Amino acid sequence: MRHVDGNAMGGLLWEVFGAEMTHQLGCCAGCGAVNPLATLTVYRDAPGEVARCPACGTVSIVVVRMPHAIRVTIEGVRWLQIHTG
Ligand SMILES: [Zn+2]
Question: pTM higher than 0.85 for the full model?
Answer without folding.
Answer: yes
